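Minutes, methods subgroup
Present: GH (chair), OT, SY

1. OT presented the first of two proteins processed in the latest run. Sequence and structure tokens recorded below as shown on screen.
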Amino acid sequence: MFGNDVSGRTDNEQWATWAAEAGLEAEALDEDEAYIVDERPELHATVEMEIRAKVDTNHPDTRKKGLTLAAEERMEAWEWEIERTRTRMDRSPKSDRETRTAQVVERESREQRVTFERRAASVDDRRDPDAPDPRERLSGEELAAVNQEAKRIQTGIPGAGSTAAISRELAEQVLRTGDLLSATVAVADRLTTEPGTVTPISRLGDVPHGEVDFEGEVVVLWEPAHPSIQQVGLVGDETGQVKVTVWDASDQPWMDEGERVRIHGAAKGWYQGRVSVALTSRSRVVFPERESWQEQLS
């Protein structure tokens, strides 16, 4: 930049002139240091050297040298905690910790289930896990017939329970009455009015508890006679119809005429000598056709 000047001025003089024109404070430049470049190499450790240094630093024979007593105690406590954590977490390549954990959970779950069933047996003898299985006393032909009827009941009554539980109850009834047909009727009749079971509308009055579950089609909706009523109408199935009242405070979804609904936990009552139901905040309304339509979209 300054070497091409033909006026015979030195580099310092050229630098001062350029700095003055640029509005900068000129500094004297030593002629001997004007073009000196620091060629000393900058040394960096290689990856291998860094690894070797870490290994040497963490070696048990060298780590504690030069440390104070307090620092040595902290290091020993840290090493002890690492070893304890490694042992607790079981880091062996051939570890079966997951399998052993699953076995422990399964055993505890089985024990809790047996304990619960024994407590439930004080109310219902059929729940006793220590009672002998009545199906063992049936012949092969009788057992096949019982299992077939149990499967038919389980298919025909939603929420009736497992086929194994139904077949066991059927076997008890068969041994008690000696007749498979009467045993099937008795078991199906009990399961129909069991809490949580979808009951035919014509049998809602036979349900011994205050809440019922049923399914049907919204036949008609009327204009509510009171502001506290959200909707009121009739829901029917192939066995009959029932009046349904939806209270405004229940915060239930709106139903449309001709729509199929499944109602859980409806409060049972009587209206003009006939059974009726009301939907409260504890009730739940399911729309099977809406759910099927949403599944198709997804």
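2. SY then presented the second protein from the same run.
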Amino acid sequence: MGKFFKNEDQNNIAAVIGQPIKHSLSPLIHNAAFSHQNLNWSYSAIEVSKHELSDCFEEIRDNGIRGVSVTMPLKEAVIPFLDRVTPAVTELEAVNCIFWDRDELVGHNTDGDGFVNSLIAETGDQISGTSFAIIGAGGAARSVIRSLKKASVGEIVVINRNQEKAKFASELGHPVAEVGTVEKIPRCKYIINATSIGMAETTNEGLMPFPMEYLNSDQTVIDLVYNPIMTPLLLQAKERGATVVTGVGMLIHQAALQYELWTGLKAPVAEMRTKAISQISKINTINE
């Protein structure tokens, strides 16, 4: 088919593009879903740099590539190559999913709605009117803040060392979001770590995003880090009696929303989750 996309089996093609890309779990997750539903689809990870985007999009259009996931560092860089973007992308200035709407190539972002869907699915909670503290102000935090506002939560406290970034992120949650400090964590029902603190195989491995003294047993603590599945934050929060939610949920549910845009079918979330947890556990075992 070309430099980037191969179709030896005449399947419907989907892929994730980014750089680096070899550690992506997306192919395992999506191919598990395609297999479970007996779809003639395949999904691969394709290394694409910013300067290769023009050639990559030429192949996407010429070959009718059915779906594309986008990861770093291309989430903003792909926007000029699209026919249009959704309101989520307009606000976040970041694309993580590309789909066809008739003859238009459309950029979307499923991260925030994936988070909300995963939280509701895993806890059974009704989150409208409730209070959230979110640690971090990067792309993941911003997408979550936007979707929490859409879900009509009552309060969002944005906590970040860089106050300017915290203010910028909080604007996506106006008027329910405000910039705050860790001292405001005890009053919030849900605490979200949207930083990379605690992530395996990084300089942040084993670290905590905030002091545990601010947690109590009435809270729910969510870590968007999914490797390890049980991060230091979640382990200590559990010890304190809090409800904990792993980052696997957001990983799966943002992928599920992409799958549904591409195929028009309800995603087999349970099978996608099983595959992801199996692979993450395998990676952790190898690295021990």
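Chair's summary of item 2: The first strand starts at residue 12 and ends at 18.
Next meeting: continue with the remaining queue.
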